[in-house]
Amino acid sequence: MADTIRDAPIGQIIRWVTGNKYFQYPEEKAGFELPISYTTALNSSEKPTALLGSRSTSETPTPLERITTKTSHGGNEELALTRTKSRGDTQNFTEERLEIDQELALERTKTTPIAPTKTADGNILVDWYTTDDPANPQNWSNIKRNLITFLICLYTFAVYTGSAIYTSSEEGVIRKFGVSPTDASLPLSLYVLAYGIGPLIFAPMSEIPVIGRNPVYVATFFIFVILSLPTALVDNFAGLLVLRFLQGFFGSPCLANSGATMQDMYSLLKLPYAMTFWVAAAYCGPSLGPLLSGFAVTAKGWRWSLWEILWLAGPILIVMFLFLPETSTPNLLLRRADRLRKLTGDHRLKAQSEIDQEGLKPSAVIIDALIKPIEITVKDPAIAFVNLYTSLVYGIYYSFFEAFPLVYPVMYGFSLGMIGVVFLCVLVACFIGMAIYISYLYFYIVPDIMKNGLRVQEHRLIPALFGCFGPPIGLFIFAWTSNPDIHWIASVIGITIYAASVFVVMQCIFVYVPLSYPQYAASLFAGNDFFRSALACGSILFGRPLFINMGIGKGVSVLGGLSTLGIIGMFTLYFTGAKLRARSKFAVA
Length: 589
Hints:
It is found in: Membrane. By secondary structure, the chain is mainly alpha-helical. The chain has 24 helices and five strands.
């Protein structure tokens, strides 16, 4: 627990205020002995024979020495344990990578010293001291990793809930400011748009080793919580729009970086389980927003939903501030290298991330993150389909917030609070989707990987081939059972089918992308976040006019018809994906 608090923001602030007197690292404590391998490396005058190639114990390559990554020059250089799997630095998922991952997991069960490596210019690369080094997030206990995962999920849930929790206040905003229903939906749509823009900036920022993940998380979420106060008090409509946009923007790092945090902690075979729970938190958040605010707004007024954001996010911020440790391996080793330099006075001790970022301009990283997703989307048909399809189903999801008020109060006499209860069907759908996908992982894909190794990337799309039929089926059921003469449960079943199938399809797609485009995974995820949020923003604005002018039956049928195109696209991607990747300069064949 002390280590967790030390690495959390509160611990780092206490260290800074007290001059590192409290919450010390091992290198700062009296009696710390530098590992013998580092003493040997510092005293050795031998010149290295390779950039990152010295073997620590024998002539047989260790798993650490066999992990390779392509350099910017197109060749291969050996990748030490200093690198982390993240959205910004994704290794190719090959059979060799799987074997290495398994061997590393085995090595972490025993204490084996890891010798530092000398570079060609004489630097000594600081690494983990042993294979089971407790400072390595991959070596943390299951309890610690699961608690961090739970905290990240809570953070994500709070930000996503903050979007749709406002919907119950739209009628009150119309009366208070004298705006149209479409204008009253702008605080929701701008919030959604903003948390799609944020990842384009915050995702690459968290990959800069000197920054890491925690400063981005805590600083932006602190601003998010502070903004919740004036948002609940604002007395003019323009101010409400600006504040809601800023709320979404500063809440977006959970969308941008949480996946990277999971990858910092979990191995290749365990990561999908953690990601499933995180995606579920994001998926359920908007659907529970109207439930949390519906009855309260009816009793207390339209501002109440905005106060609930503060009450939900504030305690989570406090817990993050106290107990969320840094997980970025490049950042952790960079700070360890700094401590070792202070201890020894030898400036040859450097982290690999320090060398990597020499000459790196943050502005260049951010500009590349803004341009690369658009370039790949335009030039690569597979990514164009992924962005288009995920944006469509995500936009339809957010159109429910405009459709439900036209169905259940009008046709079935539901109150504002009861509309929120209807949204529980999305929560049920999420549980169904999770059960299906986790069962697929546990009973099929993980045993298959253990037995046969990693197959072609399209193999991971098999559940999506079945799931892609769900969205149009569910939408057509909702469209033509939303009728006063038909029990309301029929339309709810349609939404449940839609939401459960979309959950499974999205999981498959978000595994396929980093498998096929590892070098650009960070840019592609950030770009996809933006495209999805942009269309969702638009769907909130065009949804109500569409459903009013065409009627719920025809309007939702249009969306159902569009989603049938996803069936064609999914099967095309499955059968021709290998050919598309072979022609793409961005993909791994």
